[in-house]
Write a structure and sequence with these properties.
Layout lengths: L1 E4 L17 H4 L6 E5 L10 H6 L2 E4 L2 H7 L2 E3 L6 H4 L7 E4 L7 H9 L3 E4 L14 H20 L7 E3 L2 E3 L3 E5 L3 H12 L3 E5 L5 H7 L3 E2 L20 H16 L3 E4 L14 H6 L5 E4 L16 E4 L2 E5 L8 H19 E4 L2 E4 L4 H6 E4 L2 E2 L2 H6 L3
Parallel strand pairs: 1-2, 1-4, 2-3, 4-5, 5-6, 9-10, 9-12, 10-11, 12-13, 13-15
Antiparallel strand pairs: 6-18, 7-8, 14-15, 16-17, 18-19
Bound molecules: nicotinamide-adenine-dinucleotide.
The site of nicotinamide-adenine-dinucleotide has 32 residues, from helix 6 and helix 7.
């Protein structure tokens, strides 16, 4: 089996999906080949020589990899010009963002290319080692606090000095999934006073165990989907949440929003009205900006100043720390490939009976195999 790694075309993407040290684990038998595009790891300090030393073959062009590899892996999405060169039956693996990239999905399907979307790896204990959403969200949660501290006109910790005592900044974190938990831990480590809220009731204990305060809001019936994701609130619940969170927002120096709904637009949790009541100099870091944002008026990859309140609309912040996020991403890919490739009679192939493959394979033989995505692309 030939597994190929392509450089990213998206100029905002800083990460790579394979670092040299993971190559040996991916090669399950001596006939396996790992193709890496020339210069693949250069931006992160990994030379072609290091990839070769660890057992990869350096291939001069992306075209050559696309035409020869059985399975082609990227961090992010594939582009039409790449798909055009691919023969049917090939497998592409990446964060394909299928609920939002519907044209791409249709194109892959029409070309009868198989597709594995990394976002669909189950959020289970077994699959944790391959869970790209979690590894990248941890880094993004850390990044959110660092971003906030850079824009904040105050320091985060308390300081008692001969010149006087400085109170710690107050940080309010909305949405306590993987990113939110890491943001709480980071803000606590930096000495901030931290409060947090999430609609999933199970989260309260986790917030408290990190030494933060859980903001209690009774929104009535709430819950989580079978996959563990938050369910969408009703209009009334959302309005109640916006109102109840107002006090926590306007007394905070930093608000970090991470509330996403898998496959859907993010809910607006902070309205313009609340922003207008926040203290001048306070910062909102909106980690949900990529899917519409949790803050009214937030713009992806921009800093919007509303009467002295800065709203930072963040893309995937894991991209700010590409060495560590690539290390984790590559570790996830290594674990995934170890799990889903079987070896029979000296030949490696994807094990289509594997539960992870069943969950992540969204297109097979020209058919979309996931009902939610089928609906999104209008089938
Ligand atoms: P996510 O990025 O989809 O969303 C972030 C958080 O926003 C979630 O905690 C969600 O409950 C919350 N949220 C949604 N709407 C909200 C609202 N209106 N107000 C406040 N908060 C709101 O979440 P994620 O980090 O990808 O995690 C999703 C789920 O997967 C969680 O239950 C998490 O614990 C679980 N998970 C399990 C494992 C595992 O078992 N191995 C690994 C990772 C994540």
């Amino acid at each position: 089996m030939i597994i190929g790694f392509l450089s990213e075309k998206d100029t905002l993407e800083t990460r790579i999906a394979l670092i040299p040290e993971h190559i040996k684990k991916i090669k399950k038998n001596e006939n396996d080949k790992i193709y890496v595009e020339s210069g693949y790891g250069e931006k992160l300090g990994f030379t072609n020589g290091e990839y070769e030393k660890n057992g990869a073959t350096i291939v001069k062009t992306a075209k050559e990899i696309i035409e020869t590899a059985d399975c082609i892996i990227k961090v992010g999405k594939f582009y039409n010009e790449e798909l055009e060169l691919m023969k049917k039956g090939k497998l592409v693996i990446g964060m394909l963002n299928p609920y939002f990239e519907t044209e791409l999905i249709k194109n892959i399907k029409t070309r009868k290319i198989d597709a594995f979307s990394l976002e669909f790896i189950p959020r289970t204990t077994y699959a944790q080692k391959m869970d790209i959403l979690s590894s990248q969200a941890s880094i993004a949660g850390y990044g959110a606090v660092i971003q906030a501290s850079m824009h904040n006109q105050k320091i985060l910790p308390m300081m008692m000095t001969p010149a006087g005592t400085i109170n710690p900044s107050k940080v309010f974190i909305i949405g306590v999934g993987v990113a939110g938990l890491q943001a709480i831990a980071t803000a606590k480590r930096l000495g901030a006073r931290v409060e947090a809220f999430d609609t999933r009731p199970a989260v309260e204990e986790q917030v408290k165990s990190l030494g933060a305060k859980f903001v209690k809001i009774d929104l009535g019936e709430m819950g989580e989907s079978k996959a563990g994701y938050a369910v969408e609130l009703t209009k009334e619940q959302l309005q109640l949440q916006q109102k109840e969170m107002e006090k926590a927002c306007i007394t905070s120096d930093v608000v970090i929003t991470t509330a996403k709904l898998f496959g859907k637009k993010a809910p607006i949790l902070i309205t313009k009205d609340v922003v207008s009541k926040m203290k001048k100099g306070s910062i909102i870091i909106d980690l949900a900006a990529e899917t519409g944002g949790n803050v009214e008026g937030s713009i992806l990859n921009e800093i919007v100043d509303v009467n002295g309140v800065k709203i930072v609309g963040c893309d995937d912040l894991a991209r700010m720390y590409p060495i560590h996020s690539s290390q984790m991403f590559s570790g996830n890919i290594k674990s995934l490939l170890e799990d889903i490739i079987k070896v029979e009679d000296g030949k490696s192939s994807i094990n289509y009976e594997n539960e992870i493959v069943k969950a992540g394979l969204i297109i097979k033989n020209g058919e979309i195999t996931n009902n939610g995505i089928k609906e999104k692309v209008g089938e």
